[in-house]
Amino acid sequence: MGITQVTAAVRNPARPRKLWEGLFLVDTGAVDCMVPGKHLRALGLRPRGRRTYELADGSEVTLDVTVAEVEFMGEKVGATVIYGPDDAEPILGVTALESVGIEVDPRSQRLKRLPAVRLKTKR
């Protein structure tokens, strides 16, 4: 399976003119987005809580989270964003993708826009 990346911008909803843009790994195994904490702090975002996440190796880690506006492929979405380590690779999680009706094509490993945002799961 290949790697899918997309350029995305993160904004503080209270200061929408200020943004940080980076190349995000699209991770359909991750629920939330992750951004190096130094960039979230530079945007004036503050932690709004802590969540425990399970890592790929099965271990757990508790990290600060906030809510930010994430923009990619011409779409904007409010998303839970994890304060990652300052050297972390940014991650675009599946909730942000699905919220705007975009999914990863399993064959081409490219992002594709659905004809409509899913309101419910298929039967």
Keywords:
mainly beta, 7-stranded mixed sheet, Cathepsin D, subunit A, domain 1, 123 residues, 2 helices
Q: Write down the Rg.
A: 14 Å
The CATH first-level class comes to Mainly Beta
Work out the strand percent: over 45%
The total count of strands amounts to: 9
Q: What share of the residues lie within helices?
A: under 10%
How many distinct folded domains? Answer: 1
Mean pLDDT: 92
Order of helices and strands: EEEHEEEEHEE
As for the CATH topology, it is Cathepsin D, subunit A, domain 1
Largest sheet: 7 strands, mixed
Q: Would you mind describing this structure in some detail?
A:
The chain has 123 residues and is mainly beta. It has a single domain (5-113), classed as Acid Proteases (Cathepsin D, subunit A, domain 1), CATH 2.40.70. Helices cover 10% and strands 51% of the residues. The chain has 2 helices and 9 strands. The chain has helices spanning 37-42, 94-99, and strands at 5-12, 15-27, 33-36, 49-54, 60-72, 75-84, 91-93, 102-104, 111-113. The strands form 2 sheets. Strands 1, 2, 3, 4, 5, 6 and 7 form a 7-stranded mixed β-sheet that branches. A two-stranded antiparallel ribbon has the order 8-9. It is globular. The mean pLDDT is 92.
